[in-house]
Amino acid sequence: MVGTATLRRLSQQGLLVANGGQDLCPDTSNAGSECGGIEFSREDVETLLGEKIKAKNKFNYKERCENMLEYIKRLRLCLRWFQEVESSYMNENERLTISLEMAEGRLAEIEFSSRNKEEELSSIVAELRENLSSVQEKLTKEEEDKKAAIDSLVKEREGRLSSEKSQASLSEELSKAQLELSSTYERISSINDMYKRLQEYNSSLQQYNCKLQSDLNTTSESLQSLEKEKATLVEKFSHLRGQHSSLQEQFSTIKASHEDASKQKELLANEVQCLRGDLQQVREERDKNREQVEALTTEVAKFKEYTGRSIAELDNLTLKSKDLEARCLNQCEQVRTLQDKLTIAETRVEEYSTSSVETQALCEEQRKLITDLQARLTVAESKVMEGEKLRKKLHNTILELKGNIRVFCRVRPLLPGENSSEEKSISYPTAMEFLGRGLELVQNGQKHSFTFDKVFMPEASQDDVFVEISQLVQSALDGYKVCVFAYGQTGSGKTYTMMGKPGIPEEKGLIPRCLEQIFQTKQSHQSQGWKYEMQVSMLEIYNEMIRDLLPSNRPNGAENGSAAKQYVIKHDPNGNTHVSDLTMVDVCSKREVSYLLKHASHSRSVGKTQMNEESSRSHFVFTMRISGVSESTGQQIHGVLNLIDLAGSERLSKSGSTGDRLKETQSINKSLSSLCDVIFALAKKEEYVPYRNSKLTYLLQPCLGGDSKTMMFVNISPDSSSSGESLCSLRFAARVNACEIGVPRRNMSTRSFESRLSYG
Ligand SMILES: Nc1ncnc2c1ncn2[C@@H]1O[C@H](COP(=O)(O)OP(=O)(O)OP(=O)(O)O)[C@@H](O)[C@H]1O
């Protein structure tokens, strides 16, 4: 078959001519054979001829045949040309074969190089693919970013629209605000004036404050010197007292011996008197007897003269006279012995009277010494009293200036069974400014530092702890409301701190020690003319219910009548708290209060938890109301001492509580968290303080936010397994330390103190 491209080339060379301007007409004489390399099938020629015959009917046949011949001629020429071309093709073919072989060699080379190139290309392609995938990733990311950007753009647009709206409203407001601004500028200028004046006032206040501070410093110095003076005076005083008592002892022995001597003298004088009487009697008798003897002798002589009497009568008379003589002799003897006794007695009386004169002189001397000592003693006592007054005043001023709840932290020692080999979680900084006040706790590898008014290490004794609060107890006697409470995790030592270990005097807690101090001071103040009356109440808050822990004297006893009792807490305008139906017992000795405390601690709700064998399950509130009157000045004071052992804070999971214990624990935690809320509100100086959220906070309202002197113990366990709880307690205590309460007020009213059921 001839390709259309070849036919076109032939026609271009003029070997094919157009038939009538329409067809190409080759020579068909050799139809069905090869014509110069061009194959024509018979069907082609016949179709061609058929076409020509058909065309004969329309055109001139002769002309057509001539054309046909011409056409055949041309085809033959074509054929020849084809043959020539074929031979040239053959040559060309050989040449091409050679060049093909060369080309094949070249191709192999090219193939080799192309394979190399292919490999290179495939690596490049792989690289490119990687690049492509990263680019695609970037692209997808960018697309996502783009989407997000579009979203934000949409939002921004929305925002812009809304801001445009708000801008419109704002511009309105702006115009209003500009008006306001101008008025505010005016106000600002007036405020600035006021500010300047306030600054001046502030600077004057600061100066005044500086002056006060310097006054305070000088007062503290003078307090210290007074304290020293007082100590020396007290020493002198005690020395004088010792001298006085020894002199009085001497005086009393001398007096006794003097009295003995005068008694003996009197006895002897009486005896002498009796003896003198006896002697007189004997002398009279002797004189009588002598007279009788003389009469008898004269009679005997007369008788002898006249011998008118019988011999018997004579004998009788002789016997009588002998008897009288014997009696006379006897009486003479008696008189002699009596005279001896009299002289002895008289010498003794003389001795006694000289010694009594001496004793009287000595007595006089000692009396003078005693009056001198007593005068010095009264001077010293008045000095001590003045010093004491000044000390109290300064002490209270210092506490008042502090104006916040003071917080002491106490870390108990490790108990048997607790892991002492573990790394210690609590340490105490030794830097001067934190010494005795700082504590560091490590929890989960993180160190937390705290500072309080005082930190008691595990070695601190009950006495060491009491020394720090004894001044507060003194304040209660001076007419202040005082509140000390212990807070901490269960088993951290709250009850130990407040009550101590029963039966071991060195380990008695703050409550018994406070009572001792109060009754001792009461005794010592009695000599200064003060008389005190004390009332005690004890209650516990268990499951948000108040329970009276003292036996009631009323007909329906505490146990029987407790169901009917209300125990409603009320605060009066003077800051006193009243708990209705609560038993108040008058007490006048430590023994009485100790008995009541024992009774109360037996009635208190305790239970065993995983954390403590004897865990207090309630908040224990001990209240002592002190009213004192000075007989000399008529001054009256009314103080209150509240000592509170709170129930332990604990995590439900750690305490292992179930059933009733679980209910107790939940109630304890609720009231303690109410306490936290109150403290936080006070620390933030919020207007509303939620005192009423629990009975505990409502009861303690005057102590937490009122005008009392309040102190908190935060008890800590050193066991590292408790460090989480310890951290919570310490954080709470730090907040409490920052709380400012009202300035403590001394209750010194002169009216009658009618509040038997008052709590604090
Ligand atoms: N400073 C201390 N020295 C010696 N032992 C202590 C000290 N503090 C506490 N303990 C002992 O630790 C144990 C637990 O103390 P305590 O009962 O006082 O804890 P608590 O805080 O009152 O517990 P709860 O809240 O459960 O009543 C007791 O056996 C107590 O004797």
CATH class (first level) name of the largest domain: Alpha Beta
CATH topology of the largest domain: Kinesin
Determine the strand fraction and express it as a percent band: 5-15%
What is the helix content?
A: 55-70%
**Shape descriptor:** rod-shaped
Name the CATH homologous superfamily of the largest domain: Kinesin motor domain
What gyration radius follows from the Cα positions, in whole Å? 67 Å
Q: The biggest beta sheet, please?
A: 9 strands, mixed
- Averaged pLDDT: 77
Determine the structural class based on helices, strands and strand pairing. alpha+beta
How many helices? The count is 14
Number of E-state strands? 20
Query: Which small compounds were modeled alongside the protein?
Result: adenosine-5'-triphosphate
- State the end-to-end distance: 131 Å
Low-confidence stretches: 1-7, 13-39, 555-562, 751-760
Structure in words:
- A hairpin with a 2-residue loop joins strand 3 (34-35) and strand 4 (38-39).
- This protein starts with a helix and ends in a 22-residue tail after the last helix.
- With 760 residues, the chain is α+β, with helices and mostly antiparallel strands.
- It has three domains: 4-126, no CATH class; 219-383, Helix Hairpins (Orthogonal Bundle), CATH 1.10.287; 412-738, Kinesin, CATH 3.40.850.10.
- Helix content is 62%, strand content 13%.
- Residues 1-7, 13-39, 555-562 and 751-760 have low confidence and may be disordered.
- The protein has 14 helices and 20 strands.
- It has helices at 4-12, 42-58, 61-306, 311-402, 462-477, 494-498, 510-526, 558-561, 590-603, 652-655, 659-683, 695-699, 701-705, 723-738; strands spanning 18-19, 23-24, 34-35, 38-39, 406-411, 426-427, 438-443, 446-451, 454-456, 481-488, 530-542, 545-548, 569-571, 577-579, 585-587, 606-607, 615-616, 619-630, 636-645, 709-716.
- The strands form six sheets. Strands 5, 9, 10, 11, 12, 15, 18, 19 and 20 form a nine-stranded mixed sheet that branches. The protein has a three-stranded antiparallel sheet with strand order 6-7-8, with helices on one face. A two-stranded antiparallel sheet has the order 1-2.
- Helix 11 (659-683) runs parallel beside helix 14.
- The structure holds adenosine-5'-triphosphate (ATP).
- Residues 412-413, 415, 488, 490-496, 501, 612, 614-616, 647-648, 715 line the site of adenosine-5'-triphosphate.
